[in-house]
Sequence to fold (560 residues):
Amino acid sequence: MKNLSILVIGLSLLICNVKAVALNSSDNTGKATLVQNGTTAFKVSSSQELFHLAQTWVSEFKQANPSVEISLDQLQPVAAMASNHLGLISGSETDILNNLSNWTMVVGRDVIVPIINVKNPMFSSLHQFGISPDKMAQLLKEGEKANWSAIVSNGQNVSVQLYLSNDEVVKSALVNYTNAASSIQGMKVWTPAEVIEAVQKNQFAVGFCLLSDLRNAANTNLGVLPIDKNGNGRMDNFENIYGNLDEFTHGVWIGKYPTALSHNIYAISTVKPTNENELAFLSWIMMNGQNQLTKNGYCDLTGSEKQANLLTLMSTTTGGNKDVNTASGTQSWPVTLSVLALIGLFAAIYFYSRKRIESSLLEKEIQVAPLLIENVVDVPKGLYFDKTHTWAFMEKDGNVKVGMDDFLQHITGKITKISMKEVGEIVRKGERIVTIIRDGKQLNLYAPISGIIVKHNSTLKSNSSLVNSAPFTDGWVYQIEPKNWLREIQFMFMGERYTEWIKDEFVRLRDFIAASVKTNELVYAHVVLQDGGELTDNVLADMEPKVWEDFQTKFIDASK
Fold:
């Protein structure tokens, strides 16, 4: 631990050194560091569909760095790649992307969206039930024969008019998502503007285009068709991202939209960029330029992706630029040495930490943690369950025992302390009733019923982990004299209803983890966040207090 502290202190000193050197080699206005003794001009080529975004990036960068000259053209990327200047292309440019000799970096994402007319008579039903992946596949396979009655509950007996954008990205994404290749290839395709205009005019139409196309259009009567991602026949609260385009874009970013319906935006070059001005431009895109993505209808990168790209660009600068003159190289050598040392220190900390963790695991003989899946959750019959993951059971004397359900204890891991209310206190349904604590991190749970506490489980004060090992027997928390038992149990689950609800909670849990956890950190490497992936048991156990706070507000409190 002492050695690790020394490494961290050294890292801090190096960061300060790098900042100091950088400040000495640039002005104090926050502009990117540019080569002043060599050429300040470079060229960017953009594919047609990204040209507006490219114009915005170039314009904003030039405002911050007036000394640099960037020429932007709309040549086809295939032609542009004949030279070494930068290109901005979409995922549709498969010929270039498949060329292993080209250097590429993901700088943003675009999203394929199904759009509908808000005047569609089934608009409310669609927002209630959504369209499942199977229904979307059926819609595309039936084509002109598709009928609204087969697509949505209570749908009218009216044909669905389909309009498909001629963008190759749109077609390939739909094929991957629905496996309806032959049907899509046979559909008539339109320009994005024609698709949007057709859906605006036809209230029974469905169109497929890019989110950026939708944002750039006058779409006063258009909306995104809600997708029932988990295919359970309804739009759950955690799937509700379709209120407006800003809410939808955020939902895409945190993983609530099918990943198969998005594609990358790339910076590309025939060789890895080494010109400092090009690297400064790419670094600016990773920071300030990300804001322009959302403003123009695209999705920005996650924090870990931006960090990884910046480290890649930083490592590129250490290789030097053979075209820069000697004076410039002499001025920049402190930065180069500092960056090299910084990268080496990062690597040392990483491998040192990893070795410590692996050694600890071997010493304690810890096996691979079991998966947290639906069939591990115990669901006793005869108990009522509340949406905030507490349970209630009326005993023969008329008093009601309450406690924490098995689902929640599988998430928190071993509870080390419990804070309970006193006997005689009055509680109301939905009020905080108990605080569970693990190593200082805590969650508040809420009363499933109203009444007076007549007894609490004093054993939990000395053996709190009973709520983990026996949540429905020895791990009960209170006995309560109920006040509105018959009315309040109508809002709780029992038996099969609870089992079905827990399935939705697993989906909501994965969405929460995807949104809240820094997946690139070694300590969270056990969390699987891909579509259809599983979580490990006790998934919150070793996570930082901030994640527990987010779980309280965004998962437990959101269910009240």
Q: What stands out?
A: The domain at 2-107+263-350 is CATH 3.40.190.10 (D-Maltodextrin-Binding Protein; domain 2). The mean pLDDT is 78. The chain has three domains: 2-107+263-350, 110-262, 372-560. The two ends are 43 Å apart (CA to CA).
